[in-house]
Amino acid sequence: MISEDRKKHIWGVANFLKEFAIEEKMKEQDVEDLFTLGLLHDIGYEFLEPQDYINHNFVGGNMLKEQGYKYWKEVYYHGIANCEYQSKFLDLLNWADMRVDSSGNRVSLDGRLEELSVRYHVPLKELDSYPIVCELKAKGFK
Q1: What is the DSSP letter of 1?
Q2: At residue 1, does pLDDT exceed 80?
Q3: In this structure, what DSSP letter does residue 51 have?
Q4: What are 54-67's pLDDT values in tens digits?
Q5: Crossing angle for the helix pair 88-99 and 28-40, to the nearest 10 degrees
Q6: Cβ contact 42:135 at 8 Å
Q7: Residues 6+ apart with CB under 8 A from 127
Q8: What is the rounded CA–CA span in Å between residue 121 and residue 39?
Q9: What are the CA-CA distances from residue 85 to residues 48, 108, 115, 128 (Å)?
Q10: Most CB contacts within 10 A, which of 13, 14, 21, 92?
Q11: Residue 2's pLDDT band (boundaries 50, 70, 90)?
């Protein structure tokens, strides 16, 4: 079951993507697609027990693939550093995911890493998210 904080994060990511797309004057369809992608990116949590949350992206992506969702690969591959699949929407999703904390608040990339480090009691550079943030920064995301 998706927690209240997870719901806040999901809505925060969706709104972050929508606002970015509007600011960048992207096509209306892209604005809608990015908002929907933000809403769906963590759907896999709904079908997993906490000990299996690490696989939420694969479960959600596969489920959306079965439903014919156009951006299932973005859900499937989000949160994976140096992955074989690359797309503009995947970069934007990873960026938004790392710019919205677990309570739905907007934070910096470094602020998100700090939050995850404290929450999971893992040194910052040992976080699964650390290489993703490094990739995003290398691509010019702030």
Answers
A1: -
A2: no
A3: G
A4: 999 999 999 999 99
A5: 50
A6: no
A7: 113, 116, 117, 120
A8: 27
A9: 24, 25, 27, 18
A10: 13
A11: confident
Q: Which residue in 30, 127, 128 sits closest to 87, CA to CA?
A: 30
Report whether 74 contacts 37 (CB < 8 A): yes
Gap between the Cα atoms of 51 and 45, Å rounded: 11
**What's the rounded mean pLDDT across residues 133-140?**
97
Domain borders along the chain are 4-138
Confirm if 75 and 43 have CB atoms less than 8 A apart.
yes
Joined together, the tokens standing for residue 31 give: 């604005």
**pLDDT of res. 131:** 97
Tell me the C-alpha distance between 112 and 135, whole Å.
Answer: 15
DSSP structure string for 86-102: --HHHHHHHHHHHHB-T
Q: What is the mean pLDDT of residues 68-80?
A: 98
Q: Which of 73, 108, 69 is nearest to 89 (CA)?
A: 73
Could you give the CA distance from residue 116 to residue 101 in angstroms, rounded to a whole number? 8
Euclidean distance between CA atoms 27 and 45, whole angstroms: 30
Q: Give the number of other Cβ atoms within 10 Å of residue 4's Cβ.
A: 9
pLDDT for position 137: 98
